[in-house]
Amino acid sequence: MLITLLTDFGTADYFVGAMKGAIFSVNPDARVVDITHDIPAHDVQAGAWTLLAACQIFPTGSVHVGVVDPGVGSSRRPILIAQRERFFVGPDNGLLSYLIDPEANPRVFHLTNERYFRRPVSATFHGRDIFAPVAAWLTRGVAPEEFGEPVANYTRLAALTPVEGEGGVVEATIIHVDRFGNCITNITRRDLSEKAEAQGACLIINNQEIRSFRRFFAEEAVAASQSTDELFAVWGSAGFLEIAGFRRSAAGLLKAERGQKVTLIAG
After folding, report:
1. Do 187 and 201 meet the contact criterion of CB atoms below 8 Å apart?
2. Which of 1, 34, 53, 98 minimizes the number of CB atoms within 10 Å of its CB?
3. Parallel, antiparallel or unpaired: strands 78-83 and 107-110
4. What separation in angstroms does the CA of 161 have from each of 43, 157, 190, 191?
5. How far apart are CA 195 and CA 128, in angstroms?
C-alpha cells in the first residue's frame, strides 16, 4: 500500500525525514510518495486544495497523510477518514474536508488508541508521533475501527461551490494561485457547460473581462502583433476553470490573489 505525505514543513529541517522514519519503523515495506512539503506555513486551505487535486489520482488502498497543523497540541482532534477504500489521516482543522464526499458514506474516527502511536507523543509533532504511525499501521491491515471512536462531526472549510445568481450569473472565487500565476477558480463543468462556453461566456475579475477560452496554454500562440498581456480561460487538469496568460502570471496582470471574486456570465 502507498502512503502519501503533504505538509508545510519544507525540506530544510528534519521533520519530513522523521515522519518517514516513523512509518518505516512500523512497516519497513511501506511505499512513501511525497506530494509536496512546500504548502505555505499554516495555510490549511492551500493544503486542502492540493490534497483534493492530487489524491484523486492515486489507486484505491492508498493512505494519504496531511499535516498543516497550526493547532497541534491543542484541543483539535487527530482524525482518520475511511472512504471508498482510501484513507485520509491528519488534523481535524478542515485540511481533509475537501476530500470528504458525503455520498460515499465516509467514516470518520477520532484517533485515541495510543497503542498505534509512537511513544512518547510530542505535543508539537503529531505528524511524526500520531499521523505517520497510524498510516503505517493501516498499510499493515489494521482496521480503521481499531484507532478510535467514530465521530459524526468534523471541521469543514467553506464549500468550493460557486453561488448562482439571476440571469445565468455565477459568483465564483479564486481558490488557488499556482507557481505560474494561474488563477484557479471554483468553476467546474457543473457551472459552465461546453454549450454555454461556445455561446460566448465571459469572466469578470477586477473590472477586466476575459472572453477567450482555450484548450491548452499555447493554443493560438502569441504572435508578434499580439500583446503578451492577453488573458484567457482554460480548463485545468484538476477539473477547475483557470485564468491564465501565455508565459505570464495572470495573478500579476490582474493584481489578483486567492479569495478574489470572479463573476461568470454564461453565453
Report:
1. no
2. 34
3. antiparallel
4. 20, 11, 10, 9
5. 49
pLDDT in tens, 32-81: 999 999 999 999 999 999 999 999 899 999 999 999 999 998 999 999 99
> Could you give the percent of the chain with pLDDT greater than 70?
95
β-bridge partners, 264: 170, 203
Beta strands in the chain (DSSP E): 2-7, 31-36, 63-67, 78-83, 86-91, 107-110, 150-151, 163-164, 169-177, 183-185, 202-205, 208-210, 213-214, 231-235, 241-245, 261-265
Q: What value, to the nearest 5°, has the Cα angle with vertex 122 and ends 120 and 126? A: 110
Instruction: Confirm if 139 and 3 have CB atoms less than 8 A apart.
Output: yes
Residues 244, 180: Cα–Cα separation, whole Å = 9
pTM (2 d.p.): 0.88
Distance (Å) of CA 201 to CA 21, 227, 237, 254: 51, 22, 20, 19
Q: How many CA atoms lie within 13 A of 241 on its CB side?
A: 27
Query: Is 24 in a helix, a strand, or coil?
Result: helix
Residue 260 has pLDDT above 80, yes or no: yes
The number of beta carbons lying within 10 Å of the beta carbon of residue 151 is: 13
Pairing between strand 163-164 and 150-151? unpaired
Q: Domains in the chain, start-ordered, CATH in brackets?
A: 2-151 (3.40.50.10790), 163-265 (2.40.30.90)
Count how many residues are written for the chain.
Answer: 267
Of the candidates 60, 23, 53, 24, the one whose C-alpha atom is nearest the C-alpha of residue 36 is 53
Ordered DSSP codes for 67-82: E--TTTTSSPPEEEEE
Angle 132-139/15-26 helices, nearest 10 degrees? Answer: 30
For residue 91, list its beta bridge partners. 78
φ, ψ (nearest 5 deg) of residue 51: -60, -45
Q: What is the largest CA-CA distance in the chain?
A: 68
